[in-house]
Amino acid sequence: GEPRARCASGKTMDHNQELWGLEEGFVRDWIDKGRRINRTDHAEKRMDERKVALNDIKYALRSGRIVEGHAPFEYPRGEHPHENQHPIRSFCAYMKESGRFLVVALAYAKTSHGLSFHLITVYWKAD
Q1: In terms of DSSP bridges, do strands 38-39 and 114-124 run parallel, antiparallel, or are they unpaired?
Q2: How far apart are CA 29 and CA 25, in angstroms?
């Protein structure tokens, strides 16, 4: 199935939706160039708990689609809801090996050195 249809929560979380195609391309290029994606402690724990490898995350970001977009202070999930200082996008991709959809939440941050990406969390989409 189409990731946007399969993975969307049904709620309106469409921050800057008109830019999602460009953002997907930018993240794809970032991954293809081997650039770093920072991982929060929370993301590291969830990767371990949910048995998600870094290569799975890279694949999901490279081949997936953005299914949700959250403005700063509007991300409703996690240990500190609505405290995100940066925009967050949830990418979703079908993982052939497991036959499941993987959701990867990624924050975009502007720094003095340019843009950086931070993995917020990762989870398998429930059927």
Answers
A1: parallel
A2: 6
User: How long a stretch of residues is the chain?
Assistant: 127
| 3 state DSSP class of 79 | coil
Q: pTM (2 decimals)?
A: 0.88
| Amino acid (one-letter) located at 69 | G
Closest by CA to 89, choosing from 17, 11, 30, is 17
CA distance between the termini of the chain: 12
Q: Which residues contact 10 (CB under 8 A, 6 or more apart)?
A: none
Q: List strand residue ranges (DSSP E) for the chain, in order.
A: 38-39, 65-70, 88-95, 100-111, 114-124
Dump pLDDT digits (tens) for 69-91: 999 999 998 888 999 999 999 99
